[in-house]
Design goal:
This protein is α+β, with helices and mostly antiparallel strands. The protein contains 25 helices and eleven strands.
Length: 759
């Protein structure tokens, strides 16, 4: 692999203009495809194989007209204090507002709350359901403005009016202030880590180009593949974070190779052959983990995983080809024969450029630096047991809240109180009970029953006797009279534990009643489906985690040719993920620091998040493991003692890994400002997981365990050593490639504490 990537790096450096033009062309095509593609509509979650989904499929078959209507909105009216909504003047204001909607080109109907019984018992709150002839994505601005104007007219009459429904549902698009702050922090960290504005700019440029292409492709494919805006934001989040990090790793290695005296083209080849090999492996782990989300069986989760995997793949390809090409474009600017001496190294720090001038003293390389990373490594080596115990106990304490983890799917109740959807939800809960916003649907299939009417009546009477039910609607029969539909309103809120218990009890008793009369009974609805998905996620969590851990051990076994190193990496991954889940519970369930993060409603953690975070963090954790441990192994196989190999790994990679982690934390944290529960949960979970994994697991636990193991850390049975393939991510095969180092930095190749000429 190292030899192949070495050739790619040199080729991209030589053909830098061609490479740059090809990527720019890809960017233009992606943007053009996104601009001309029709807008996609976010679909409801589905879970094939569950009772809820079976019922939805049956409804599509038996009640085809029910799904033929388009978007739906709900206008909720509240009378002024001390008045009733049924008062003459208030009733007239409601009817006038609803009447103003009639005549719109996309308007279908609006229910009259005073004739349909949509008025609260105390007479203060009423609601109307407005339907349209087209889906929400096809609603025009004029149609949406008409809805807001109707609400405004009623407000002018003294009523409180809020709106909700699918006609208003829309995910917040990326591009807000908090994301820009995250990118700005990443830029500052890059400048500090690389010591060059040009080098920092190159890393940002490559990452932004890859993200723009990925975002354009996701947008263009949103309709044919059913990709939601959440998929696009995940692709943006992951592509930006890993894109910056991968470019940083390759740029940092290029700087070290130039400091050793290698010509720019050879340095680019060696950077891609060594750091690029680690990038390929790290990116592959992220892609495999994300693509593996498809085995869970939730289409939306599959699309999120594949969308994120595509963004990471693009980030890897851009880092391997465009990064060395930009070294040539910005580092040379002309052919080697005509370039000015100082133009050869614009991607290098100022001090290093000065040191590389003819007659200057030998430049300092990464091997010479004795910064904080080196001092920290030696501190851990002096007290490995104490550091290990402190880190493990600390992560254990942070992870403790995970024992109270509850999974659910957010609705309007989790939105900001500043939104009209949330205020409409609260008004409906106040007027009609907390269960009104999460009704259940009981489907009675009487196609096999000898007496369909009696079977339906038996189920209705059974359902009415179940504890926790506020009301049961009249049965609605299909055209063929072989299916009945019941609307059941619970007494408790959709995401409450009581509602979850009610669904299970309802299914048990209703199914029993149906079986006695030859009918098949299903309990469905959005609330029931959310419960089914949450339970399926909880059941799939442990198997998926087992698969991911097994994959981590296998891949690291091949890369590092060691038994204990992969086991240690997997256990560390479990610690960081557990601590991240603890943070999610503390913030989103218990409300700790929720106000600081702009989270206004606590409740169950979104059911998709734990398994999604496991998939993403697995790949990112392996990033840091590979970049840090590959330098340790490189030193060890070249004859360094175990302790010195640890110090050498931190001296070479500690600063870069820390910078990469800060960048990822900044990027992920920037998305917390998006007022979408899915993205907020993802941002908090990923940012905390990266912080724990990079700074506690990889920077503290890893060196402590390696120090305690000593030579045993690198032990591998001879049988496995013969069987395992040699992927060579350290660049062992590059020892004979390229011209010998020349110039004032040439002696740096052999003047370090251990030979580095082959890596």
């Amino acid at each position: 692999m190292a030899t192949f990537l070495h050739r790619i790096g040199r080729w991209a450096f030589r053909r830098r203009r061609r490479v740059a033009v090809l990527w720019l062309a890809a960017l233009v095509l992606a943007i053009g495809a996104a601009a001309t593609a029709p807008a996609g509509e976010d679909e409801d979650l589905a879970m094939p194989g569950t009772e809820s989904q079976q019922a939805f499929d049956l409804l599509d078959e038996r009640f085809p007209d029910a799904n033929a209507q388009g978007a739906e909105a709900r206008l909720v009216f509240r009378a002024p204090d001390g008045q009733r909504i049924t008062a003459e003047e208030n009733k007239a204001a409601v009817e006038e507002a609803l009447g103003s909607l009639d005549g719109g080109t996309q308007f279908a109907s609006a229910t009259d709350p005073f004739t349909t019984g949509a008025v609260s018992e105390d007479g203060t709150i009423a609601y109307s359901t407005v339907t349209y002839t087209v889906d929400a994505v096809d609603l025009t601005d004029a149609t949406k403005d008409a809805l807001q104007d109707a609400a405004g007219d009623a407000r002018e009459a003294g009523l409180t009016v809020e709106t909700g429904g699918s006609a208003l549902d829309s995910e917040e698009e990326p591009g807000g202030t908090t994301e820009l702050v995250g990118v700005a922090v990443a830029a500052v960290v890059l400048v500090l880590a690389l010591g060059s504005l040009v080098a920092a700019g190159l890393s940002l440029l490559t990452a932004l180009l890859g993200v723009a292409i990925a975002f354009g492709l996701v947008t263009a494919l949103s309709v044919p593949l059913g990709l939601s805006s959440t998929v696009a934001i995940l692709a943006l989040m992951l592509g930006l974070a890993v894109g910056i990090d991968y470019a940083l790793f390759i740029t940092s290695r290029f700087r070290d190779e130039r400091a050793r005296g290698h010509a720019p083209e050879e340095a680019a080849g060696r950077a891609v052959g060594t750091a690029g090999s680690a990038v390929v492996f790290a990116g592959a782990t992220v892609v495999i983990a994300l693509a593996g989300l498809s085995v869970v069986g939730i289409p939306e989760l599959t699309r999120m995983g594949l969308g994120g995997a595509g963004a990471v793949t693009l980030a890897v390809l851009v880092a391997l080809t465009l990064t060395p090409a930009l070294f040539g474009l910005f580092g040379i600017g002309a052919s080697p024969a005509r370039a000015k001496p100082r133009a050869w190294g614009r991607v290098l720090p100022r001090a290093l450029r000065k040191a590389m001038r003819p007659g200057a003293a030998r430049p300092h390389t990464a091997t010479d630096r004795k910064g904080f990373a080196t001092r920290w490594a030696r501190f851990v080596l002096r007290r490995p047991a104490a550091v290990l115990l402190t880190a493990v106990l600390g992560l254990g304490v942070v992870a403790a809240p995970v024992l109270s983890l509850e999974l659910g799917l957010p609705g309007d109740e989790s939105k900001s109180v500043e939104t009209t959807q949330r205020r409409a939800y609260d008004l409906l809960s106040e007027g009609f009970g907390p269960g009104f916003n999460g009704p259940l649907t009981v489907v009675v299939d009487t196609s096999r029953s000898e007496d369909p009417a009696a079977a339906t009546d038996r189920v209705v009477k059974t359902v009415e006797k179940v504890d926790g039910i506020a009301s049961v609607g009249d049965p609605v029969l299909s055209r063929t009279k072989d299916t009945a539909l019941l609307t059941v309103v619970p007494r408790t809120a959709p995401n409450s534990t009581e509602t979850k218990d009610l669904v299970h009890a309802l299914r048990e008793k209703a199914s029993g009643a149906g079986a006695e009369s030859g009918a098949d009974v299903f309990v469905t609805g959005k609330t029931a489906l959310n419960i089914d998905i949450s339970e399926a996620m909880a059941d799939a969590l442990l198997p998926y985690l087992t698969v991911v851990i097994g994959l981590a051990v296998l891949l690291l076994l091949v890369v590092f040719r060691s038994i204990l190193v992969p086991v240690k990496a997997a256990l560390g991954f479990l610690l960081s993920v557990g601590a991240a889940f603890g943070v999610l519970v503390a913030v989103f369930q218990w409300g700790w620091a929720a106000d600081l993060l702009g989270i206004e409603q606590t409740g169950p953690v979104m059911s998709l998040m734990p398994i999604l975070i496991i998939g993403i963090v697995f790949g990112l954790a392996m990033d840091y493991e590979v970049f840090l441990l590959s330098r340790m192994r490189e030193a060890y196989v070249h004859g360094a003692a175990p302790d010195e190999a640890i110090v050498g790994g931190f001296r070479h990679s500690g600063r870069v890994v820390a910078a990469a982690a800060v960048i990822m934390i900044s990027v992920f944290g920037g998305f917390v400002g998006i007022s979408t529960p899915t993205i907020q949960t993802m941002g908090v979970g990923l940012a905390s997981a990266v912080a724990f994994d990079a700074f506690v697991v990889r920077m503290a636990i890893v060196p402590a365990v390696m120090a305690l193991l000593g030579h045993r850390a690198w032990w591998l049975p001879r049988t496995l050593n013969r069987v395992l393939p040699n992927v060579d991510i350290e660049g062992e095969a590059l020892g004979g490639h390229g011209p010998a180092p020349v110039g004032p930095g040439a002696d740096a190749v052999v003047r370090g504490p251990f030979p580095v000429g082959r890596g």
